[in-house]
């Protein structure tokens, strides 16, 4: 019998020396505030951070990995073992789920469970403005070198886009988040693809602005344009609801008339109130007369008689015209006014040569300065807004002109004088003026007759305030004149004497 080596026999019953990286099983024997301590069948105890074993109790067993050795303990880690085992499972070509945690030089750092991986910018399919925020995504493992794992999203994006465009249709309502806010609209992240929400599609109301949105906002959008070949999609927020314009439009019809107050005066037209809605009258449709300055012609609150001439779907605008109403009025002017009618008008413009005024219906009437008064030196004091009475003296349908007169509201001094002084009748009149044309004589308090030079003896010494006998021999309404003659008094007397002689001595034929 050979001699037994008790040293070797003892060694055979001792556990094998654990090396760095080994996977070993340990039993938890005690815990303090920082560490747990394990029986690992070694002359040294195992020590593990307390944060790794919060859910374990004394006497629990679990596997760990040897990560370090010092004189007192064998340092072990449960997390390191799990990370290694996860890493071993990941192979090139695998599809994995992870979270993008931060941006590093040329790539994003991705956490796949406990394993770190890199996602190069060019392989990410993300914009340069993207900020990592622990977003969970799917990745393809395109390269594995030891502990280094390189990921890509390009094939996944391509597949998701293809699947998305196979299913999506015009009119679909999709959920997304605001990805980017541009000057002209919003890029919406629909998960598989991104779509454009143009600023014009934000809202039917003009009150909704880009500034009302922020990146990350969740929104529902409607697909309004779809280019599957080029993988482009346009979206709308406002078309999730019916266009309010359609409801407004349904309340109106072409040719409908309104007495609409002016709400806003622009350089090129006016906005008028139509109850709860608004309408627009272009400057060219405000009058049958040319208007150069709207602010001078109109003021806020002025009532305009107008009719609808267009319901514009593209501009969502109700267009009206006052000119159309005027034109119809002019075609039917005989139902409104005749020459010699007397009506009230409102002064709109005062010029050196006359004034312009509007009738209640909106017809413009021109009153020449010569028609203000019978007085030659009449000083006018009319101003815009004055309401005056006029007599219509002329209506020109083709030119759409109405002429009126103020002075002809009454009887002219000529007519009064003419009614009092008959032709071929002798009257005693007073000289008021001596002029180059002859003598002016008083017929009434505001009308003078003329005795031409040839109708009196120049040798007579006549002076102002002298009373003379004269005969009316001409009344001219167009010239507004009454002519008299002193000479014809003698002729008339001679004729009377001759007629009397003929009556007394005449011979019957």
Low-confidence segments, given as residue ranges, are 1-15
Q: Helicity range of the residues?
A: 10-25%
Number of helices: 8
The average pLDDT value, as a whole number, equals 87
Structural class: alpha+beta
Radius of gyration: 55 Å
Shape: rod-shaped
How would you describe this structure to a colleague?
- The protein has 509 residues and is α+β, with helices and mostly antiparallel strands.
- It contains eight helices and 30 strands.
- It has helices spanning 6-13, 78-89, 154-167, 244-249, 294-297, 322-331, 413-420, 487-505, and strands at 23-31, 35-39, 45-49, 61-69, 73-77, 95-104, 107-112, 115-120, 135-145, 148-152, 173-181, 185-189, 194-198, 218-227, 232-236, 257-265, 269-274, 277-282, 303-312, 317-321, 342-351, 354-358, 364-368, 387-396, 401-405, 426-435, 438-444, 447-452, 467-476, 481-485.
- The strands form six sheets. Strands 1-2-3-5-4 form a five-stranded mixed beta barrel. A five-stranded antiparallel sheet has the order 8-7-6-9-10. A five-stranded mixed barrel has the order 11-12-13-15-14.
Summarize the structure.
The protein has 509 residues and is of the alpha+beta class.
